[in-house]
Structures are given as structure tokens and as C-alpha cells.
Amino acid sequence: MNEYARVEPSGRVAFPVARAGYPIIGAAAFITAVFALLSLTLPALLGVAATLFICYFFRDPDRVIPDLAGAVVSPADGKVIKIEKVQGSRFYDGPSLKISIFMSIFNVHVNRIPYEGTVTKISYYPGKFFSANLDKASKDNEHNAIYLEAEEGRKICFVQIAGLVARRIICNIQENDRVHRGRRFGMICFGSRLDVYLPPASKIKVELGDRVLAGASVLGELPS
């Protein structure tokens, strides 16, 4: 039987919203109020719908995290669109296992730490904005790579990748930070992708097409 743990305090509201969404929600609500005061019924109704959708997009639900030795959890909600062996890449020295997760605009976009360890490097690249489900998005799109060293020198890299609509990558951790599996660390606004690179001897626990939840779904297990 799997055991779970809460790694962060539970939210105090029934529908928690990520802090990054406050300014956008506020702006949408203000514009909607202006339309309503001007008696512009249709624009006001569209504004209400847009404001509610933005609230929905920036939702930030609490999660319980699998408490399993060696378990690497998903850093994002979404669909597993690629699992492959990579012989070498800019994100990992030597061979690795790569798992790609695509987030549509309907997924929770808050990102979580996949494994406990120390952040050794963060590398931001101001690239292009191809659709995040395309292979070339991993290399060419705007992205933010976080390099993590776990116990016994095992290395993980997870990469926040902007998509066709996404124009803002948020990362709230820094180099040399000690991080913990399942904790929130950032988000990508309006559709995007997360790539995870694991040691080649890791055991993959997901399949193509699986739907995963940030912090709650196990992607794989690190070699012992």
C-alpha cells in the first residue's frame, strides 16, 4: 500500500488560486465591471465568463505526495506525450531517460519539485514559441532548466518549456536551494510543457498517453 505525506500546509480556502493569477484576475474583473457600469450587456457577460475561466486556470489545489523511496513525481499536470532514451542532450551529460508532459490550458499549471535534492544550476533560454506538443519545442522554445543533484550524486533535470500561447515562465527557486519532493516551485502561464531527464537505469512508471498530476503521480524510480 502506498503511503502519502503532506509536504506543505493545506490551503485555507475551498478554491485556492495561485498568487501569479491575482493581477490578471483583478484586471479582468475591473474591465468586466466597467462594461457593466456602461450597460454593455454582452461584453459584460463575456467579461464574467473570461474572469471565471482565468480563476479556473490559476487554480492551485493541495496535493498529497507519495512517500516512497526513490520515487520521482510529476512536476506538472498533463498528458505524457513522450518517453524515450536520450544518448546526449544539453540538459543531461551522457545517456538519460526523458519524459515529456504536455499541459493544455485546462490543466493546473502550478509546477512541483519532482525529487528532493540540491539545485546545482538554473539555466534560462529566451527561445521561440512553437506549440509545446511538438518535438522541436524542447530545444527551440523559451525554457527554464533546473538541474538537481539528489543523494549519492544522482542527477535529475526538469525543464519548464513555454508553448504557443504561454509567454511567462515563473520559477521561485534559486541555485543552491535545498528542495523537497512535491513542493510548489513555479508555473507556466497558458499552455506549456515539462520535460524530465532521469538517470538511464531509472524505472519508468508511466506510459504514453497517461494523465498525471503534479506531485501526486509517480513518473519513475531512481536506481538504488
What does this structure look like?
The chain has three helices and 16 strands. With about 220 residues, it is of the alpha+beta class. The strands form four sheets. It has an eight-stranded antiparallel β-sheet with strand order 11-7-8-9-13-5-4-15. Strands 3-16-14 form a three-stranded antiparallel β-sheet, with no helix packed on it. Strands 6-12-10 form a three-stranded antiparallel β-sheet, with no helix packed on it. A hairpin with a 5-residue loop joins strand 8 (about 145-150) and strand 9 (about 155-160). The mean pLDDT is about 90.
Name given to the CATH architecture of the largest domain: Distorted Sandwich
Q: How many strands, which pairing sense, and closed or not: the largest β-sheet?
A: 8 strands, antiparallel
Mean pLDDT level: 89
Enumerate how many helices there are, as a single number: 3
Q: End-to-end span in angstroms?
A: 20 Å
CATH superfamily of the largest domain: Glucose Permease (Domain IIA)
Q: What is the C-level CATH assignment of the largest domain? A: Mainly Beta
Radius of gyration: 18 Å
Question: Percent range for helical residues?
Answer: 10-25%
Order of helices and strands: EHHEEEEEEHEEEEEEEEE
Could you give the count of β-strands?
16
Structural class: alpha+beta
